[in-house]
Amino acid sequence: MGDEAWERLMEVSDGIVSMEIRGAGKIARSAAGALRDYADSCSATDRKDLVDRMREAAGQLYSTRPSAVSLRNGILLTLKGAELEGTMEGVRKRIMDQADEFIRSSHEALERISRYGSKRIPKGSRVLTHCNSSAALSVIEAAYLDGRVEEVYSTESRPWRQGHITSRWLAERDIPVTMIVDSAVRYFMNDMDIVCVGADTITANGAVVNKIGTSLISLAAHEARTPMMVCAETYKFSVETLTGNLVEIEDRGPDEVADPLRPEEFPGVKFRNPVFDFTPPEYIDAIVTESGVISPYMATEIIREMFGDAASMVREGSRETFQWLKDVNK
Ligand code: RUB
Q: What's this model's pTM, rounded to 2 decimal places?
């Protein structure tokens, strides 16, 4: 494409790939913002050219983090129905308005989640969290301000060590925090009152896709009878899983595992680096969404609400956008 607008979009895309921009919610909001800016500034010549360019931009952003359905849903909600507008200005305005609305409502969702989730944390709790989730942290902060959290245990979260971000964030707010290595979770689990984590994707059967290690933590929590709470906006629920699609687990390659040692120093050794895993619904006590606190077994209800929306998009004639994103997802 070669124009400045595309370069700015690529900066966001590269930022997501390099993990400068990370966390399911932030990725989705950044993608929506990038699409809005691209719609505003790309040098499309007519309506069709703009629609084509927006599709290309969406495909570029969509390819960056395959496990985050939030990204796909953020893109879909930003573009939905835009190709139905009769003029280039109409297409542009609809995309910009929908991007702003997605970003606004996603902030509002976080605020609600913090209010609903904090009530689930008993007074004087020790809370374990994993990785770095803005939804989980918003709950923990609200609960702390309500006198419910005594201390937070934060896992290091190898290989990227997002636990460093979480621990600093908590310490900056004077919330007592202790950082532990991932493999110490079982050792400390009996001292925890609740586990509070985020999600990248929630499937139709109520399974939660989140940072690698979440599933092991859920097993330890289950064995210790420690409640496991997942905090997630409804746009992290996956419509496609209702019709059998599987969630792809991102594998980020060996360098992140072997760093600072290089893989070349391990001749004959293979590395695997899946960065998310599945926690089955039987190990999750509650999912806190902006629509309420639900059992994971109610995931289909949330998805059906969204599916209704998707179905109406198809009825309105937005089939193309919807189908196109489905094709990208295959
Ligand atoms: C981050 C991660 C977070 C979820 C939810 O993984 O697994 O728990 O994305 O985050 P990564 P949020 O660092 O690989 O992006 O609640 O902020 O959306």
A: 0.92
What residues are labeled active site? 131, 200
pLDDT at 317 over 70: no
Per-residue pLDDT of 42-62, as tens digits, reads 999 999 999 999 999 999 999
Give the residue from 185, 137, 144 showing the smallest Cα distance to 165: 137
Residues framing ligand 1 (Cβ under 6 A): 22-26, 131-135, 160, 162, 198-200, 210-211, 275
Count of C-beta atoms within a 10 Å radius of residue 262: 10
Question: What pLDDT sits at residue 266?
Answer: 83
| Centre of ligand 1 from the C-alpha of residue 24, in Å | 5
Residue whose CA lies nearest to ligand 1 atom number 10: 133
Whether 257 and 182 have beta carbons less than 8 Å apart is answered as no
CA distance 171 to 175: 5
Distance 50 CA to ligand 1 centre (A): 32
- The pLDDT value recorded for residue 328 is 47
Helices (H) and strands (E) in the chain, counts: 12, 10
CB contact set of 186 (below 8 Å; sequence gap of 6+): 220
The pLDDT assigned to 329 comes to: 46
CB 28 within 8 A of CB 65: no
Q: What is the CA 30 to chain-centroid distance, rounded?
A: 12
Residue range 250-256: average pLDDT?
Answer: 88
